[in-house]
Amino acid sequence: MPNQRDYDNARRNRQELIAAGLTSRRDLYKMGLLSAGGYLVAKVGLSSRAWSKDGGGNTQSPPTRSFVDPLPILVVKQPVASLNPAPTVAPNTAAGEGRTIAHQALSKFPPQKFYQIVQSQIQAQMSPDLPVQTIWGYDGVSPGPVYHAKYGEPILVRNVNNLPANNGGFGNNTVSTHLHNGHTPSESDGFPCYFFNPGQFYDHHYPNVLAGFTDPQFASAGGDIRESLSTLFYHDHRIDFTAQNVYKGLVGQYLLFNNFDTGDETTGFRLPSGQFDVPMIFADRVFDPKTGQLFFDLFNLDGILGDKFLVNGKIQPFFQVAPRRYRLRWTNSGPSRWYQLFLTDPNNLATTIPFWQIANDGNLLPKPVQVTSVELGVAERADVIIDFSKFKPGQSIYIENRLEQTDGRGPTGNVLAAGQGNFILRFDVVLPAVADASQDPATVTKYYDLPPVDLSNIKVSRNFRFERGNGQWQINGQFADCNINRFTVTQNTSEVWTLVNSSGGWMHPIHIHFEEHQIISRNGAPPPLVEKSRKDVIQVHHDETNQIFFRFRDFTGRYPLHCHNVVHEDHAMMALWSIEPSGDTNPQP
Amino acid sequence: MEKTSRRGALAGFGSAATKPTQTQWKTIEPREAIRQRYFPEVVLRTQDNRPVRLYEDLVKDKIVLINFMYANCDRICPRIVHNLTTVHKLLGDRAGRDVFLCSFTLDPTHDTPAALKKYAAMHNAGGPGWSFLTGSPATMEMLRRKLGFTDPDPVRDKDRENHIGNVRYGNEARCLWGACPGMSRPEFIVESLSWVDRPKSA
């Protein structure tokens, strides 16, 4: 029985048909678009964007209950005693390694721990009201296990591809796993064109070393401590199929600890730790209303918006907490949506609930910043501290996304009123009180200083225009191409990049691999406080020009820069560049 | 002070308060789901004025490259057609055997089969496995939308001169679909095709 929404959709569809010149009922019947009752069949619309006003151009998912599943706690990745065959500098092609380039720093940073991670088809229950989903994961789960890594402790990860031949409708089983944020040699970084096949493995060497270790001034410290990274994530990055593969489940978390971010809240910066340090990977998804199966719009060029909101693989979970501080590590894994996350008390919608942001893109800020919301483009991360002792026992508080977005282009700019957004997760302050040895962020005076932005020593300034031409995403008028190296950076130099978005109504979260950058200016003005940080994803807003500062130290090889709206990335908004001892000074690569 | 109902005030809570009464979940083979969603049952005409069914004759069991063009396009089409001509050459005898090119017209009013044949000849395009296709205006417009060659901005979408210049490529039997810019290097378009070049059965 059609409801008001069906009528609205049908009316919109009819208008579209008329606009398209498709007025003949006979045509409509022939195309299977008109039911016997004369109603336009809403489910298989004219275009994947035909009924987009609700959820962004896709099928509307079937109803599911909210807050019926507990938040999955990511399993910690365990090392193995050894790998067989033992890892080698040169690719072990004979044994089935898909890597084609030798490790550049394996002997300099011999691994102290070894891991094996396996990619395969898995079964996942995302909601009790949906059928079991057949997707892809790492070590049998999606999100995959979380690495606990340490600076000064290099590791080697053997990445095994056991993905199936039958992709179940979308996804490409030749993969390349990227450790997002890592200061990693190119051949281990998950370069989009370095994908490997089912039946093969690929050894990744993660030195877990600070940037600047080859700089004499940091030699004794093993690098610049101010470049410490904390919250990274890993995901598939296979050229042209990144969106499909990440959507299908290939994402996980990687945490880096050191003498300051110790993992023990009684030492170092005394950040909430152990069970009070909780990664949360956000994802939005669409499910087919007829089959209940995860749906990916294969022919979408603009961006996919889900109407179901997952955290760590479950739709709208709840999370029981104790009345003390928690460190939550928030990652927007996409595919395309922009979030602005607030805390909402449904019994008191008028109250703003402040909390602390302590890290941006996985980098601890110079010091904590009190905020009332956090904005996350795809691949951006934010570490926050929420003190649940501020709430009443038994109270429930929600993470709510209030940024209005109706299609893949970008948010409308409207921040919705409290309670009118998307509820993502419910915190229940129901656990018994426990000791809290972490430090109150209000009393923290410093985490790390920012490395200096030294504009006197720039090797080259480059300009990048992000545009849309004929439905295709371009950087400086060109497209991603595995065999084209757009520019070469001189190893151990700095550059200033100007990023220009003149693509009309579109916004792009731009990610550049390798080292963190700092924002010099946004449209000429200094960035807001939470962006006075090292970052690796820069939101490039409508009609905006941003300047960022980079260093490129220590390693060489090929790296990408790309939009992290993975649908844009796959439709060619990516440029492949490299670092070599001797580079170029092309200002418009 | 206005009072809103609790349900109205919390629009984003999630759509079901109690367990939804399930209709039985349908099972649809992924390949069939893709066919239903993207490939309508239409009959088109080739540049040789041959009637062909979109799915059965042009797409099913094939590796395909799909693009949209029109004969009077003097912006991006000449370059894309030129690229595809090189792609066609590089495909060698696979073109027409298991790899096929489908160029659909955006201007069916002018692009009759004869006009398309002339266009192909003029550009050294066409050849084994490469069809230029036309049909009724309603059909071609619906196809354009179903295949995703649209701009979400309705004003820009009406501007035929700035039409979508992607080449959609896929292996229909294996549900492997991607897209690359029609203005990429032809060698890279062929390389992209290799990423879906698998046998028909898994």
Explain what this protein looks like in three dimensions:
The complex is a heterodimer of chains A (589) and B (202). Chain A has 4 domains: 4-46, no CATH class; 93-257, Immunoglobulin-like (Sandwich); 276-443, Immunoglobulin-like (Sandwich), CATH 2.60.40.420; 455-580, Sandwich (Immunoglobulin-like), CATH 2.60.40. The longest helix of chain A has 16 residues, at 4-19. Chain A has 5 helices and 32 strands. In chain A, the strands form 6 sheets. In chain A, strands 9, 10, 11, 12, 14, 16, 17 and 19 form an 8-stranded mixed sheet that branches. In chain A, strands 23-22-25-30-27-28 form a 6-stranded mixed sheet, with no helix packed on it. The radius of gyration of chain A is 24 Å and the shape is globular. Chain A is mostly beta strands and 589 residues long. In chain A, strand 1 and strand 2 (133-138) form a beta hairpin. Chain A starts with a helix and ends in a 9-residue tail after the last strand. Chain B has 202 residues and is of the alpha/beta class. Chain B has a single domain (27-194), classed as Glutaredoxin. A 7-stranded mixed sheet of chain B has the order 2-1-5-4-3-6-7, sandwiched between helices. In chain B, helix 4 crosses helix 8 (186-194). The longest helix of chain B is centred in the middle third of the chain and has 15 residues, at 77-91. Chain B is globular. The N and C termini of chain B lie far apart (63 Å).
